[in-house]
From TrEMBL:
Start and end residues of each Xylose isomerase-like TIM barrel domain: 19-249
Cofactor: Zn(2+)
InterPro entries: AP_endonuc_2 (IPR001719), AP_endonuc_F2_Zn_BS (IPR018246), Xyl_isomerase-like_sf (IPR036237), Xyl_isomerase-like_TIM-brl (IPR013022)
GO BP terms, alphabetized: base-excision repair
SUPFAM superfamilies in UniProt: Xylose isomerase-like
Organism, scientific name: Marinithermus hydrothermalis (strain DSM 14884 / JCM 11576 / T1)
Protein name: Apurinic endonuclease Apn1
SMART domains per record: AP2Ec
Pfam name, any one: AP_endonuc_2
Annotated family: Belongs to the AP endonuclease 2 family.
Alphabetical list of NCBIfam families matching this protein: nfo
EC number of this enzyme: 3.1.21.2
Top enzyme category: hydrolase
């Protein structure tokens, strides 16, 4: 099992800062933003930066690397917003290729599901990459695409796209992770196929069941609670990469809970 956190690239070493943080925390999976998540401005790789990142990772225990796309990306939009979203996502795919990262995760956006599919495939066309592009299930609300597993399955059918499964989003969208985590995982497998879900965002939820509220809580302290223990202990998920997404100051606590649930120790 690979597990870890969303870590920062802010520091003198640039992207390699994330590897230093991973080593300090003893984790085997990382997620980063390749640029500011709330700006359309890209971040240019400095000379030698990608090479330094790859070299640092080679000497580390980080087995899975993920880029989370900008929060501004909306693949379901039309016109200029869609074009900017596709370009931003293509930029992340290009960065993943340069850095040697395995996955890029993106929220599908709001609007037309077919436009989401078209946008994801266009980004892959613009920036061919060995990194796999994953569409994340969302909490829902408004015209957001990707709340139901069936919708995600239709989006990725016949494509190289995969899915990132977020436990808090699924709970907020109406999947009873708090009462029947094994059943939710079985449904995920039946509808999408676990082989197409390599990354799991392991998050508790501040908002209640089926409220469409996307607000993460520390493990075991939210509305899902101890049921998340069953998720990480499920035999069907032992080859997946688990990423926790909470504010940085809570990283030690969430790692402590995760390791207590799994029996794993710092690498």
């Amino acid at each position: 099992m690979r597990y870890g956190l969303h870590v920062s690239i802010s520091g003198k070493k640039g992207y390699a800062t994330a590897i230093d943080e991973a080593e300090r925390l003893g984790i085997t999976a990382i997620q980063i933003f390749a640029k500011s998540p709330r700006s359309w401005r890209t971040r240019t790789l400095k000379p030698g930066e990608a090479e330094r990142f790859r070299e640092a990772r080679e000497l580390s225990r980080v087995a899975t690397g993920v880029i989370h796309a900008s929060y501004l990306v909306n693949l379901g939009a039309q016109g200029e917003l869609w074009e900017k979203s596709v370009f931003s996502l293509a930029d992340d795919l290009s960065k993943a290729r340069a850095l040697g990262l395995e996955y890029v995760v993106v929220h599908p956006g709001s609007g037309d599901p077919e436009q989401v599919r078209k946008g994801a495939l266009k980004a892959l066309e613009l920036a061919p990459s060995p990194a796999r592009l994953l569409l994340e299930n969302v909490a829902g609300g408004g015209q957001k695409v990707g709340r139901r597993f069936e919708e995600l399955a239709q989006l990725i059918e016949g494509t190289p796209l995969g899915v990132c499964f977020d436990t808090a989003h699924a709970f907020a969208a109406g999947y009873p992770v708090h009462e029947d985590p094994a059943g939710v995982i079985a449904e995920l497998d039946r509808v999408i196929g676990l082989e197409r879900v390599p990354v799991i965002h392991l998050n508790d939820s501040v908002g209640g069941f089926n409220t469409r509220t996307d607000h993460h809580a520390n493990l075991g302290e939210g509305q899902i609670g101890e049921a998340l223990r069953e998720v990480v202990q499920d035999a069907r998920l032992q080859e997946k990469s688990f990423i926790m997404e909470t504010p940085k100051e809570y990283d030690p606590y969430n790692l402590q809970v995760f390791r207590a649930w799994t029996g794993l120790e710092a690498s």
